[in-house]
Design a protein that fits this description.
Helix content is 26%, strand content 22%. With 249 residues, the protein is an alpha/beta fold.
Length: 249
Amino acid sequence: MTAKPYVTLSTAISLDGYLDTADPPRLTLSNDADFDRIDDVRARSDAILIGARTLRRDNPRLLVRSIARQTRRETAGQTRSPWKVTVTATGELDPHAAFFTAGDTTKLVYCPTREAERIRRRVGHNALVVGLGNSVTMTDLVADLADRGIRHLLVEGGGTVHTQFLAANLVDELHLAVAPLFVGDQRAPRFVGDAVFPWDGDRRATLAEVRQIGDMVLLRYALSDRFTRHEAEGHTGPMTTKPLMIGLS
């Protein structure tokens, strides 16, 4: 059996736990230094996954921005940016979206098997469409990526995808970058939705690092016993921003 990819879930949230505002324009939560940190995490990943709603709402390119990081990947025999992955139930995808048109890396679309042929006709040669049964589960999706050689998967959202991965206990490492602002609108998308999660009052998540990034703070949580080995092997790279010293006066 092929080993499950190491899964890092990374997102930025407001102080009250939102990913964005309810109405356009899109809210930028990360600062420049945090965007650079995310770029480094992307460069160390084999694939980046977002949900179809995030694809439609944000139209992200999902590419490694730094030329130096792109070059390091090429030197290691990789594509300049990781594979791009999305999952959809309806197939409402724009084949001209940046997800499909930007970059020369592999693009994968996971969907229910009954929708696969229709989605193939819609996106054409822009992506490989994979049907996964009556409804796509993140467990099946991750297993398929493992069979395709993906060893490190970066999950970037949105809230529905976060909820599914966390509730299924598939995440090894969680990155929460907290921006110093409030959204204050219950219509806005939240970090996660309602679910039964493995971490609760009886099983608390393990805080692995607290890091100040300009006016933001990064919280890294170890959510599986694979975190320590992954850290020891140097997959997270050197710390590029200063740790936050926490104390009581």
